[in-house]
């Protein structure tokens, strides 16, 4: 990991001046939106993805599926999808993955189901993110893929059908390896039988999300044996999906309640969900906050003296690693030590998040120690300064959380938050 070149526009993060009382409506979940788009493109008829998140990642997914021959109407908040028609619009199509792991991993299995070549590439950092395990698995299931070293760029040579069958993968680097195979598995001639062999899979709630969405569309999935998922061959029913708010995006807003000593309500928090962000209901009370369901959604109230009253946290975040940057920022402000473990896999996200958090929080005065699988943080007096984001939206979330408590924090490239939350900076400033 290297520090990026200074961004031309350093955004001054606003600081709270007293207890906040706010209610926020969040954009839809990126994870749900992109899974729904893939399933709609593989379905047996037209579908609608309602309240879809409009962000860079989801628009890249829509464009990728269009390149494969689907039709995705992204006007408005309800996106109509017509499924793939069996061939790419041109002999050779191109897919821009940007910084979207879901595009890089979920679309190649679908590309094997159309006739024609599909070339995949993305932003420079994406060429460092792991995808070789998926490519090897797809070859084992009967697909032809040209790549040089198990990374972007690569080309899928689709024949219109994938034999499918059994495959063993090591998904310890990303749960997306499993989800990618399950999403397209029903359309493979023999379905797919995926077995994981390796260290524990991170972010398992995302696999559970994939399974639930498949079952909603009539697909038979057997997950009765640990680390094995069997998807039966058959149609994927057309389905109108209403997208939940993105609960991981709730983290910085609920952190405002903790920092200000006030309360923040997130509208329409689901009663039951497979989203990893739901873990905030457990994590924040352990830091001294009060969490309660109210008619509007979920309300979090902070300690009476705000961030100065926050307790440290000893937590294994293995299943909810996407929350680690926001949680680490709160822990840097806490009055007692914290230990965050189980998150070695977030080194392979948009950036090496552990190294980036240690560097940027430490640069503002935090007492932080980087470990192979996590961070230790001890109470320290923080000061203002530049916080680099490494083109990573979750790093920007950590930056604005610190900035809400500490004057003078300048966020480099705050616009990277558009990955999952358009106009995040304007929305955040409006609250403060």
Write a structural description.
- There is one protein chain.
- The protein is of the alpha/beta class and 432 residues long.
- It has two domains: 10-27 and 245-431, UDP-n-acetylglucosamine1-carboxyvinyl-transferase, Chain (Alpha-beta prism), CATH 3.65.10; 30-242, Enolpyruvate transferase domain (UDP-n-acetylglucosamine1-carboxyvinyl-transferase, Chain, Alpha-beta prism).
- 29% of the residues lie in helices and 24% in strands.
- The protein has twelve helices and 23 strands.
- The chain has helices spanning 30-41, 56-67, 101-111, 132-140, 176-184, 204-216, 250-260, 280-286, 324-333, 353-363, 393-405, 424-431; strands at residues 10-12, 21-24, 47-50, 71-73, 79-82, 87-96, 115-121, 144-147, 154-159, 165-169, 192-196, 221-222, 228-231, 241-242, 263-267, 290-294, 297-301, 314-316, 338-341, 367-371, 374-378, 385-387, 409-412.
- The protein has a four-stranded mixed β-sheet.
- The two termini are 32 Å apart.
- The model has no long low-confidence stretch (mean pLDDT 95).
A few lines on this structure:
This protein is α/β, with parallel strands linked by helices and 432 residues long. It contains 12 helices and 23 strands.
The spatial strand order of the largest sheet comes to 2-15-17-16
Q: Whole-number average pLDDT? A: 95
* Number of self-contained structural domains: 2
CATH topology of the largest domain: UDP-n-acetylglucosamine1-carboxyvinyl-transferase, Chain
Which percent range fits the helix content?
Answer: 25-40%
Q: Kindly estimate the percentage of residues that lie in beta strands according to DSSP.
A: 15-25%
Named CATH architecture of the largest domain: Alpha-beta prism
What structural class is derived from the secondary structure elements?
A: alpha/beta
